[in-house]
Structure formats: C-alpha cells, structure tokens
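Reminder: ligand-aware prediction takes two inputs, not one.
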Amino acid sequence: MKLTFFGGAGEVTGSCLRVAAGSLNFLVDCGLFQGAMRGPDNAPARNRAAYARDLGELDFVLLTHAHLDHSGLLPRFAAARARAPLIWCTKPTADLLPVMLKDSAHIQSREANRPRGRRGRAPATEAPLYTSDDVDRLATRLIGVPYGAQFRPHPAASVRLRSAGHIVGAAFAEVELVDGRGRKRRLTVSGDLGEASPLLVSEREARADCDVLVVESTYGNRNHRPLADTEDEREALERFAADILGRVSCPGEPPAGPCLDFGGRRLLCVGGRANLVAQYRALVERAGGVFEWHDGGREEAVSRLPDLLARQDAVICPADCVSHSAYYQLKRYCKLSGTPCLMLKGSGLGSFAEGLRRLAEGRVQIGADQLE
Ligand SMILES: [Zn+2]
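Here is what comes back for the chain with zinc ion:
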C-alpha cells in the first residue's frame, strides 16, 4: 500500500491523500490550501497547481467532511470527463457540500472581479478555479451513504464511514482493501476529529482496529475545553442576540425592550454581509419597516441603484462591505435628494441594530452621516 500526501501533512490545509494498492488507486479528500495570499508559497498559486495536478486514473474518491480544506478542490472532478471518479461521503455531507463549494466559487469570483487599483486588471492566475455551474455538475457525482453502512466503491475495496464528531456529516473512513500482494489490509483515515460528546452532531465513534491509521493531529497536543465552557459561551451569545433584538423589539414581545417604530417606511440596505441579510431584514420588519437589499458590489448592479433609491425613505450602508462606486454614488444621491443615509463602520448585527435605532428615531438628517 502506498500513501501519497499532497497536502494536510506538515501543515493544516489542503488535505489530500492518494492511496495506491495493487491496481487500486483512490483519493481521500481533495482540499483547498488556505493561508497567505502573497509571497512565494501563496495559497492561490498552490491551489492552481493542485487543481491541475495529474493524480493518475482514480477509481473513486472518499470525502471525510465538507470543510473546504478537505473538499475545496473537488470541483476538478466536475469537468465532463468520462472517467471522472464518483465521490462517496455521508448523506449530510452530500447535502452540505454543494452549499460550501458554491460559497467558495462565489468568493473566488468576487476576488477575481475586485478592482486592482491603478495598475488595472487582475493577473490571469487569479481567475476563479471553478464556478457555481461546475459545483452543480459535481453534485451529480456525489453518493451519500448512511453512517456505518458498508459499501463497495470498487470490487477491491469495502468502506464504512463512521461518525467523527467535528461537524455535521463528518466521518472517518475505514477501508478494507486487497494490496498488491493479495493481502487484506485495513486502513483508517480519520479526517478531522471532534469532541467525544458534541452538542450538535452525532457522537464520535471510537475504533482503531486497523493495520494502517492516518490520523489528524492539528490539535493533538491540546485537550478540548470542558463542555461547561462551551455552554457558557452559548449563553453569552444568546444574551448578545437578546440584547440586539431588545433594541428593536415591540411591546408585549419578549425580550422586552424599547419599541422602535419604523412605521411602514422603506429602508434600503446597500452592502453588508450576504449571510446576515435575513437577520437585517428581520430587525427592520420587527420595527415595522419594509426592507430591501442591494449587494453594493458588482458594477452592473450599481447601475440599478438610482431606481432603487428613488423609492426609499432611508438608506443604511455597512461601508466595509460595499464597492467604491456604490459607496460614492450612494453618498452623492442621498446628499442631493436629502434622503437620510447612515454609513455604518461595521457590518455586524450590533452596528446594524444601532444604525436602525438612529434612523427610526430620526437622528440622521443628512445624506452622509457616519455611525462611529
Ligand atoms: Zn474540518
């Protein structure tokens, strides 16, 4: 049995292990390198090289979990190649993976389109490795199996995926295979391991009856903190969330707090974090307002701003998540029209709720007020 580590050994990202035994050739994980964006060993260049690397003819791929440092280069198998291998993972991972990879494709395309200053265009090496369409194609090659079920991705290999704790769907792989000398060998690859008694995912299984064990050791010199500390942190988060909601909650609705009345007024949010838009909307609607969102990014979308702005009563803009052109167009428009506009320094829920309070209380009069 020959093991080749293309990443995730001597470092913590880019996990990719090739196993060759007899005529059998398969991969466990195919992760993205993360880390320095510049310098001789920068992550984009390593990912580009890894994406194009010849891995030989693969019989199948096993995926331990959906974190990008284990899965982020899998779309290389999305290309319409007749011999592209199937990818086996747990059912929850098969559900989660396309979401994670589409996010990765989105981030890559945003990075590639980011203005590069006076010297102009981004170098060709920073073009996205894959697109959302590639992820859709890859999703057709995923096979989700239940935890603990034995399956045969190849006549010479039988596999079980067992719970590794860590995240939803995470598994370690137990592989029984026949090596080049006709001997039965048992290989276990741990992937990332979580706590023995996690709060949110299924209990990690404990097994080590194998001939060869490849084990994750990133935190091998540390113990998990006590469960009580995690519960304290969760309570602190709940208090924080209650405090934010309290700032815009209405009478009779727990948690009690001062009622902000947006009185059916329309509020446009330009920019901000896409993953928080639902919460921004909930805060505005809770205060009785009508919420619209503009991502504040791409050039073609900025041209839609004047139309959108014309029907707003107020505008809020987390200025750290907005393109330059949207930012300046917004300031100019609000100054000319007198539409109350608040630029936020942060894009978190706390500063959004505080900004909403100032707008609702009419404490923003002109078109370029900045929330400190
Ligand atoms: Zn992980």
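The first helix runs from residue 43 to 52. The mean pLDDT is 83. We will return to this case in the review session.
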